[in-house]
């Protein structure tokens, strides 16, 4: 996914220690009235979004200093890593969501939730404008909320690259609704293709499932679909077995570009065995109701491929409401909303942003890295001591993503100059949740810190300007489920494990990461149900 240009040195855990607050601290405004008695009135904190960033922030906020107002078009949190499993009924939709009101129940702060979408942010008058998703009568649909402090955690939208026909004809996989629609469409195809009126050629078209995008979501979906088809549907629809075709289209040179080459190779081999047709160098130029047109990047040849269902999974882009807000605060030229390293939105007071909707901007990267290296020998020592070996895969990641117009040579040069390790901050749940935790810790501590002008070591020379530690991301690895109870896992340092044991680890990690005991129990029992009875193919 796109435009996260940010590069962060990984020399500490997320969050970490905090010192004190000086006048120009990014959290200065949080301290006034921190006791909740700012002239008898608590500060009004508005949180936009209940995804990974917003929910982790709310879960970890432990101060009563605010009246909290949460706005989101979904009154629940979605555990997105299990969305591909919902598309084939391995887990049920309700097992991976948790009502936000459950999550914020019994918190020390007052909280109100509004099921609505924010369509405008006015940083001058400190207001957010919202619209209910209920389609109420005229005058009842829209409302405005004032804020003292705003936290934007609205995620991102699907990036269609303005490809004609994608919005109208392709499926997405961002929300629970998308996963449910996809599940219904798969069964639709099987039932339609079973009708006696359908010609052979039409059957072939209907039974062709196309996935666009060879990133982790596209690959996982293709693998899940293959498992569903071969393990459950093949015996229920024996006459359609030979018509089934799954194609994965990827514009770049290989699938899973952010993973180690071993993982990419294994995935390619596995998909070949499973007869999933992987077409790299294929750029989709148009989608109609029955055909998907691709351009071969090497030959320039255009081919129209008939399909039954197409999933579009090519990354994310900025939401229109954020783009409009960026214009207002002087960030019009940027591809993603920029915050400083304390997650405070640049060019705007009292507004913080986290997760997929924002990116930390450290200015000139080369200068940043050089600066760190020159000023802080202890950082250099840390980096040298903990030498990570994932530089190559980081570069592959950057190269594989056409949206990240990173000057690889400049990056290499900068890195060799400073002899340090870097990591890109990817748009993942891991990043969003660590940021949510970090920001909540800052809010919790803001009022309790004593003045300590020297601040953390990094800023001592500049007069202790920012006494809170900046956000620092700690990468704990990434999974790529590849179907057939096999997965690949890549830990920091490019330590890779592939196979059935990794799939076991995947089950353990994801069960443990589910946000409540209710969802843990539901998901684990779904897995048992699936192992015992298979997946449900009812056309609901
Ligand atoms: P989101 O989680 O997308 O939350 C955005 C929130 O904003 C939502 O509640 C939404 O309803 C709300 N919102 C939207 N519009 C508005 C509006 N106008 N006003 C108010 N609120 C609004 N990451 C991993 O680390 N590991 C994985 O295995 C993984 N698997 C994934 C699988 C899939 C299928 C997908 C789609 C993503 C996956 N990710 C994974 C990525 C991860 O889900 C995102 O990076 C993460 O959700 C980003 O968190 P966020 O809070 O920024 O945004």
Automatic annotation (TrEMBL):
SUPFAM superfamilies given in the database record: FAD/NAD(P)-binding domain (SSF51905)
- Catalysis performed (reactions): a quinone + NADH + H(+) = a quinol + NAD(+); a ubiquinone + NADH + H(+) = a ubiquinol + NAD(+)
Membrane spanning stretches: 3-21
The question of whether Isomerase is a record keyword is answered with no
EC number(s) of the enzyme? 1.6.5.9
The main place the protein resides is mitochondrion
Origin: domain of life: Eukaryota
Q: Write out the GO MF terms.
A: NADH dehydrogenase (quinone) (non-electrogenic) activity
Compartment(s) of residence: Mitochondrion inner membrane; Peroxisome
EC top class, as a word: oxidoreductase
Membrane association type: Peripheral membrane protein
Names of required cofactors: FAD
Q: Where is the FAD/NAD(P)-binding domain?
A: 44-362
External alternative NADH-ubiquinone oxidoreductase-like C-terminal domain residues: 475-536
* Keyword vocabulary terms for this entry: FAD, Flavoprotein, Membrane, Mitochondrion, Mitochondrion inner membrane, NAD, Oxidoreductase, Peroxisome, Transmembrane, Transmembrane helix
What's a GO cellular component annotated to this UniProt protein? peroxisome
Q: Does the keyword Ubl conjugation apply?
A: no
Which family, according to UniProt? Belongs to the NADH dehydrogenase family.
What PANTHER family has UniProt attached to this entry?
NADH DEHYDROGENASE, NADH:UBIQUINONE REDUCTASE (NON-ELECTROGENIC)
| Name of the protein in its database record | NADH:ubiquinone reductase (non-electrogenic)
Its source organism is Linum tenue
